[in-house]
Amino acid sequence: ARVRHQPCGLRELEVSVSELGLGYVSDETILFRYCSGTCEAAARIYDLGLRRLRQRRRVRKEKIRARPCCRPLAYEEEVSFLDSRNRYHTVSELSAKECGCV
Amino acid sequence: ARVRHQPCGLRELEVSVSELGLGYVSDETILFRYCSGTCEAAARIYDLGLRRLRQRRRVRKEKIRARPCCRPLAYEEEVSFLDSRNRYHTVSELSAKECGCV
Amino acid sequence: ASPSSLQGSELHGWRPPVDCVRANELCAAESNCSSRYRTLRQCLAGRDRNTMLANKECQAALEVLQESPLYDCRCKRGMKKELQCLQIYWSIHLGLTEGEEFYEASPYEPITSRLSDIFRLASIFSGTGADPAMSVKSNHCLDAAKACNLNENCKRLRSAYISTCNREVSNFERCNRRKCHKALRQFFDRVPSEYTYRMLFCSCRDQACAERRRQTILPICSYEDKEKPNCLELRNMCRADHLCRSRLADFHANCRASYQTMTSCPSDNYQACLGSYAGMIGFDMTPNYVDSNPTSIVVSPWCSCRGSGNMEEECEKFLKDFTENPCLRNAIQAFGNGTDVNVSPKNPLFHATQPPRMEKTPSLPDDLNDSTSLGTSVITTCTSIQEQGLKLNKSKELSMCFTELTTNIIPGSNFVGSPDSVD
Amino acid sequence: LYFSRDTYSEKLYVDEPAGTPLLYVHALQDTRGEVPHFHLGQHLYSTYRSQSHKNDWFQINEDTGLLYLNQSLDQRALEKLSARNGGFPLRTIYLQVFLSPKPFQEHECHWPSCAKVMLFIINATMPACSSLKPREFCFLETGLSFRIKENKPPGTFHQFRLLPVQHLCPNISISYQFHRDEDLPFHSDKDTMEVSMKHSLDREQKEKYELIAKCTVRDGLREEDVMAPFPVTVYDEDDSPPSFPTGINTASAIVEYKRKEGTVLAVLQVFDADVVPSSGEIQRKYTHTMLTSDPWVTEFFRVEHYPNETSYTSNGSRVRAMMHVYKLVLNRSLPITESRSFQLEVLVNDTDFQGPRGALLLYFNVSILPVSIRFPNNTYYFSVNRNAHRYAQIGKVCIENCKEFHGVNVTYRLQSPSTNCTALGIITTPESTTGTLFVNDSSVLQRSECTEMQYTVVASDRQSKKQAKTLLIISIEGNYFPEEEGCPISCAVNKKRLECEECGGLGSLMGTCQWTFGDGKGISKNFSTCTPSLKTCPDGNCDAVESRDLHICPQDCIRGEIIGGHERGEWKGIKAGYGVCNCFPEEKKCFCEPDDDKEPLCDEVCR
């Protein structure tokens, strides 16, 4: 599907740990799973109302989100790897396990 | 208090039905509850990793959200009102009942 | 190699073993057997075993049991009631051998699979090998970690033991070794050896790779300790636990160097040796690489022969079964190079093409010239599993690593190590 | 009597004729006059003892120790034996040879009174003499290795000839000798080809002889030498009394500030040239007893014994020995009021050594000095800023030599003459026996009428109730500036320098948080973060004040989640972090991530 209309879902990518940019230097490759795609169909009347109130300045100086987000609903427990200084690290909830519009 | 650090939570606002901009013309006032605030503390390493991969262009041409959203976790069932032409309307899931960072 | 791979004529009227749990059930169902088994257990539990075993009733019980399936029963690695099976096995065999034997019979059924089976499975499952052009230079242990990380089951169980073994408990206790050992045992029991062997026995060309290989079992928690116990004391500690005792016996049965075979392995089965070596990880006798020297493969349990008193010779012999064991070393190198030995009695004559270096057999004095040793050369018909061209996509041409083995037969003896003879 | 080897071996070809001599076993005397008689076990075994068979094929000469074939081992016999070998053709047969007069138990075969014989079955007829290589006339592949007990009578312990080969090829001339056998305690007889000891051996002189045996094979004009290792291990017996390696049998033990249980006060060493018993039994055989009838001494002191194997060089080779280390250790923490001197005697006894000098006395001269609790200064002066927030750490007070004390429980508390201008509190840090002064009520500092605070600091030892006092004067400085609204309670929440320095937080000394710049080198101990006080946070130590409230310094005290590249502290806190570390104490969560959001993270599709 054209990128803009791909529905929210789980994708996966083989990346080296270093590429994650978390500060760990390791050549180990892991499977990074993330959520991407559009949630247009998941909007509710709440979103419409909130957007209108924001436009009419009835809601101001607040961090609000008037559209559903494509986000993980569950995460993978943990993944471990050996870094370049031969020390092990374990990272929890790095990859998504399930996605949805919230 | 400084807006910047207000955590995500439930807020409420008295509005007239017309102000919701849903097309209904009614002077009835209802209590509109919505979610706002920062989800900074709710971020996971997933978000950090996804952000980094996005910055390094390993994830491209996809709609992703690399930060938790402050969104309703539950909605109020329904609200009813009489419009200016004396007809009753019932609207479901207009207000948030519970908020959280997802 | 197990009896099942033998030809009919060679079975010698032998009775294929049942597992000891089943044998115990069969015996319990048969009054004569169950009463004798009870008697024998009383005989063996008595204070002075020798006098007990000398009395008529105990002798009669022993004779009956020697004919029952209990006597030859074995267990399978990873079987459901493995511990119960082993307890039954040792309840009989421990009693019959007084005192400590240096080598004990393995309670496990002989392993019939071979390294070539693993290479075949590895090429089907992993599907994520390095690109052949790259792989000659690549870090095979790193590729092994990648293959594991990309397999859900392997990744989960690998992370489980790493996080357990890496978790600091207190200022005085580096980690919870008991939990770490349990997690390691689960990893090696539940993850197919196509993944675990690649991480444990990957071949290395540089120090970084060899250090990664050494770190596979998180030695700082699972292996090292403040002090090194005496190896014979460590053996006693291991033999006090049925599982550890069984894994050690299995290691000796499958890795004990023998000068009467081609590969120096008792039944010329590298997989059997590697499997029993991996089977000791997660027990008191956990072995590991002693350093990160890529070229010389030296593994050892965490012990020394200091404080052996007059048992230093026996202690050093025990330690050498790890540190100077050509069978074990050949097996690890064979896996690393993706080679296996294919010796079948039907066609003993093979012809040599290109001999790589083969480790000398164990007890030959150093000055032995080659004329009398087993001149064996092994050729690889393809590259090692790490060097196999396993593309990501589905179409994988199966490149098997099979080896022709040439053997200069010793004059005067058709001493072709028949794969099925257990030394 | 004992066998000179624990295992003998020989090759056995199928169908070798009955009567073929196989090998000699040899026994050596424990005491002169003993006469060995050799008995063969009734069973023979395949690889493991559990697979046994009746022995119908082998016999031994009771007096000479010659093992020979009583009945030829043919194909049918071999198959019968294999049936009990799990169905595998048999490669090795094990026999057991016992030495009497000691009564022997068939089920138990262990050196020294039992030896195993390994016969390698070769499923082929005996090769022709001419086809054998020189080596096959001389030595077996399994190698030789001998055991000789020290201090025992000399005797013959080996016979070189390979009997089956010699039986097959009588006219091949073979001779054996030791390579370089000058001043060796062994003699190799050219005719009998027997090896014997010239005299009894002393392990403490030399415990390993790595000899090389040379075999010369002459076949017509051809002559060839074959070498093989001939290792002899000398077995130890407890024939050396314990002694003091440096002659020192006395040590002094002075107890002053270090009065904690487990403190090592003094060490003495005892040397023993023997290595028996082995480490498993040495603690039982080498006893030590404190010779004192004073229950107080046994309550407060204990002796720990650490046997370590050592070695020395003798006759050019390494000889093992034992060094026993004895440590005098505090068994309980000593009160600061305790002071006395006494000599403690410890009897060390090598119970295995048969002889008068098996025991030694160690002397520990113990002197326990009293220590007092006192402050070095009469008055302490500190200052505090009016804008300081609660838990701001003003300074530390401690009794004299407080850093030296171990095992002494000193606590500090404040007494104040007046009640209105009192803003401070004090917390004791047990490990370093110091008292940390902190702001406990910041509202007092904001009152302009309060310009100075006075306290008395009381230090008291919990056990002896001894006390010390000193005066504390705190001046209140600076002007008070009310803080901007909406500032978080904890400095650590802030992720940017600007928002960090525009707010205060719990523990801030001057009313504003301080930004610390990291070194930007990956996951590093120097990570960027917002802190109430650079002096105490983050410093990898969740100190006594910081542990009162997680909001003060979560960087040092967090136990919960740390998200992003990090290394956890020993018990808690962030030991190293990547980029900027900020924390949310309410959620018990910290993040470590570079703050390089140069590029706005578009929620929409990024090009």
Write up this protein:
- The complex is a heterotetramer, with two copies of chain A (102 residues), one copy of chain C (423 residues) and one copy of chain D (607 residues).
- Chain A has 102 residues and is mainly β.
- Chain A has one helix at residues 45-55; strands at residues 9-16, 29-36, 70-75, 78-82, 88-92, 96-101.
- In chain A, 11% of the residues lie in helices and 37% in strands.
- Chain A has a two-stranded antiparallel ribbon with strand order 1-2. Chain A has a two-stranded antiparallel sheet with strand order 3-6.
- In chain A, strand 4 (78-82) and strand 5 (88-92) form a beta hairpin.
- With 423 residues, chain C is mainly alpha-helical.
- In chain C, 45% of the residues lie in helices and 4% in strands.
- In chain C, the strands form two sheets. In chain C, strands 1-2 form a two-stranded antiparallel sheet. A two-stranded antiparallel sheet of chain C has the order 3-4.
- Chain C starts with 19 loop residues before the first helix and ends in a 16-residue tail after the last strand.
- Chain D contains eight helices and 40 strands.
- In chain D, strands 2-11-10-5 form a four-stranded mixed beta sheet, with no helix packed on it. Chain D has a four-stranded mixed beta sheet with strand order 12-18-17-14.
- At the C-D interface, helix 3 and helix 15 of C face strand 18, helix 4 and strand 22 of D.
- Chains A, B: Belongs to the TGF-beta family. GDNF subfamily.
Descriptive terms for the model:
heterotetramer, A: 102 residues, mainly beta, two-stranded antiparallel ribbon, 37% strand, C: 423 residues, 4 strands, 4% strand, disordered C terminus, Neurturin (chains A, B)
Layout: helices, strands, pairs:
The complex is a heterotetramer, with 2 copies of chain A (102 residues), 1 copy of chain C (423 residues) and 1 copy of chain D (607 residues).
Chain A: E1 9-16, E2 29-36, H1 45-55, E3 70-75, E4 78-82, E5 88-92, E6 96-101
Antiparallel strand pairs in A: 1-2, 3-6, 4-5
Chain C: H1 20-28, H2 31-45, H3 49-54, H4 56-67, H5 69-72, H6 82-96, H7 115-125, H8 132-135, H9 140-149, H10 152-165, H11 177-190, H12 193-200, H13 207-215, H14 219-222, H15 231-239, H16 242-255, H17 270-278, E1 287-289, E2 299-301, H18 312-323, H19 326-337, E3 376-380, E4 403-407
Antiparallel strand pairs in C: 1-2, 3-4
Helix pairs in contact in C: 2-4, 2-6, 9-12, 10-11, 16-17, 17-19
Chain D: E1 2-3, E2 7-13, E3 21-24, E4 27-28, E5 37-40, E6 43-45, E7 52-54, E8 58-60, E9 66-69, H1 75-82, E10 92-100, E11 114-122, H2 134-138, E12 146-149, E13 156-159, H3 163-168, E14 173-178, E15 186-188, E16 194-197, E17 208-219, E18 222-235, E19 250-255, E20 264-272, H4 279-285, E21 286-291, H5 295-300, E22 301-314, E23 317-330, E24 340-350, E25 359-368, E26 379-385, E27 393-398, E28 410-415, E29 424-429, E30 434-439, H6 442-445, E31 452-461, E32 467-477, H7 497-501, E33 514-516, E34 523-524, E35 529-531, H8 554-557, E36 561-564, E37 566-568, E38 574-578, E39 580-584, E40 589-593
Parallel strand pairs in D: 2-11, 12-18, 19-25, 26-32, 36-40
Antiparallel strand pairs in D: 1-4, 3-9, 5-10, 6-7, 8-9, 10-11, 13-16, 14-17, 15-16, 17-18, 20-23, 21-24, 22-23, 24-25, 27-30, 28-31, 29-30, 31-32, 33-35, 34-38, 37-38, 39-40
